Amino acid sequence: MKRLKLFIPLGIFVGLAVLLYLGLSRNPDDLPSALIGKSLPAFALPSLDDPTRVVTDKDLLGQAYILNVWASWCTNCKIELPFLGKLAAQGIKIVGINYKDPAEDAKALLADVRSPYQINIADKDGKLGIDLGVYGAPESFIVDAQGVIREKIVGEITEDNWRGKIAQYFYDR
After folding, report:
1. 3-class DSSP state for residue 123?
2. Alpha carbon distance 90, 87 (integer Å)
3. pLDDT tens-digit readout, 20-40
4. What are the pLDDT digits (tens) for 39-48?
5. Which residues contact 119 (CB under 8 A, 6 or more apart)?
6. Please, are residues 74 and 137 in contact by the beta-carbon 8 Å criterion?
7. CATH architecture assigned to 34-169
8. What angle do CA 157, 159, 162 make, to 5 degrees?
9. pLDDT tens digits for range 45-65
10. Model confidence, pTM
11. Which single residue of 1, 46, 65, 154 has CA 20 to 30 Å from 27?
């Protein structure tokens, strides 16, 4: 009985050590999405540029695109804007979701830089972000021409993750 009492704390310690090791060895940017391989959630939201125009998920079909969740209050969103501009200049379609952001602030930011967004959706209350499982901005989704989500990128899009993870969806393999 005494031996058993000695092994219980040791077993608990080893179990916790294994869990800690597994947790620390994971990449915090790899946040899984249950939406990979599924259609973009249905939505009907106003355009940031023209609030009288309603944009729906059906309006985005026909061409693969980057769906970029951004906000004017997000520092990393501002950092990623020039790279997104380079991609847009190469013909990559980029759709923005302005997330929980006053329209005036978002428009002021985009007035200072050349907007990379072909379409910019105003998600003022964050409902579309919630439906997409967004943790925060910036986050991006790669959506194919049929409206199916193929990839999720947490954090800004950079040259490295563009070449390693994203570009394959836009160029012939």
Report:
1. strand
2. 5
3. 666 565 555 455 567 899 999
4. 999 999 999 9
5. 47, 55, 59, 60, 95, 96
6. yes
7. 3-Layer(aba) Sandwich (3.40)
8. 60
9. 999 999 999 999 999 999 999
10. 0.81
11. 65
